[in-house]
């Protein structure tokens, strides 16, 4: 497949203008400039020895050797030449200049495509350069063998610029190593090239390739991801996180496999009493913390009681552990321990729940139920930066705002993972660009790039995974405050929102319209649900019928969103514009810093409307309807209450017949839709790019510890 190589390098016109100055340039200093290399970037001396275990020592480099560890490339340069290090993802890796400034050599990198050869790369670049220059003479065009024995291709030609008639001699040397292509582009005026021809040829022949490395770790031993970093320590604590938690470091009694089957984890097995209210968990004898200490039933009790303790201020414990007898009392400060937990011996824990609930085990897959080490947690406020977990990977290095490094747990009770390291680069750039540059191994795709990667002609299309997710987007109405204490106002705002237009314009078509609560892949999804369809005329009529009598009588409405500064997110701005156009209502948008957003929402510090949404923690409609809309649910952030709905949900909790449960939850969904405690917006679709050498990847609609199931092949 043809490369657009000029996308990676300066236009030839720029190079020509630069070269035209060579004849009168002040000779460059023969001393290398001072360069501060980026992580994994070019270095002229051996990097500091890493403290990571089981890594080979970094060899000492010669005084005239440049190396980019992140790309696994080396090059020797002649005495007297000066150099600078570039940016491998945007520009040259190395930039070298002859002593008198007449000759310039630049090494570029870009991902290799299937079918590429050194010859095709060299000819591609020459062909693409002919848009700005005329090739007047080709003196070399053939294969060469690098000093390391690897094949390459050299193409040398004279050229004349189409605009200023200046001439250059250009040397292109191309080589491929694994999934990476390298081009050494050298040029000068013809006399200058003759003067430095041997130097340029020697540099080309010195090209050498090794396994790339990052953070001192060979690339072929690491799965490299990108991510952000929260400044809120509560998000790294399993007891307080609002997300899916760190499933590399921590684990619980049960988990999901890539097919979303519930599987034994720390608990190797369990027994259930005839009335389905007493669970006896048998912990694995070989389960250990990362420091080697055996995991006991006491550790499980400590972890759950810590989550339930009022001083922990967990927003999730009453959602995921509230079925256990005594959790509510401890959380409310009425008891010092959870009465429903009974330690039978070091490896046996008996758990009593308040009623026979078929989804109870599923809830234990959430981080609130994960096991933590008491000594670790109580070692200080920054304990989460050096966690002593039980999961398949150990967090061994955390450079703030730079990277998190995980090493596989060789003593993991379910077997050591195949991938030795997982590296999460923090705030390193836009995912798709990093992926294109070969700097990360997989990435999610934003709505802005979906159309591109869906095009079969795009080089990234072959790496695309896509599917439905178990997520529903919505906007909360605070039903306890005007004007959303009136159901007709809530219905009016729902019917004044054009979902399809929102998806087409704001999300570039990369979602499904949500008429109700349950996403299409969830058990209980009802294709015959009667939603509140877009109807601005009826919406205005409903507003008039409300106790407020129309838009003119509504108090000022504030929409709270997660964001920085005063700029509204495009999705929120689009919704506000629809409500203004269709209802004549003006919305004020306020942003809360993303790291604090959920803490503020749970504390009740928000406007009458605020951004929301829910992704399944386990594939059961109870995780949506009951968790979000029961009057007593901690996640019921809009304060919605309907006694009829509560009774229906309480009946569904203990219904053992699967079909009857589904029917009850579908009835509950219809009540929720009619009462409009939230405005349903979208059901998300998932798009991921995954490198071909990453094996075992499965696009799961629920976050699971997938890394332990994957392996790398010929990276």
How much of the residues is beta strand, in percent? 25-35%
- Corresponding CATH architecture of the largest domain: 3-Layer(aba) Sandwich
Number of strands: 32
At CATH level 3, the topology of the largest domain is: D-Maltodextrin-Binding Protein, domain 2
Number of domains: 3
Distance between the termini: 21 Å
> Would you identify the CATH H-level superfamily of the largest domain?
Periplasmic binding protein-like II
Oligomer state of the chains in this structure: single chain
Largest sheet: 7 strands, antiparallel
Q: What is the global morphology?
A: globular
CATH hierarchy, class of the largest domain? Alpha Beta
**Percentage of helical residues?**
10-25%
Specify Rg, calculated over alpha carbons.
Answer: 31 Å
Find the structural class using helix and strand composition. alpha+beta
Poorly predicted spans: 1-58
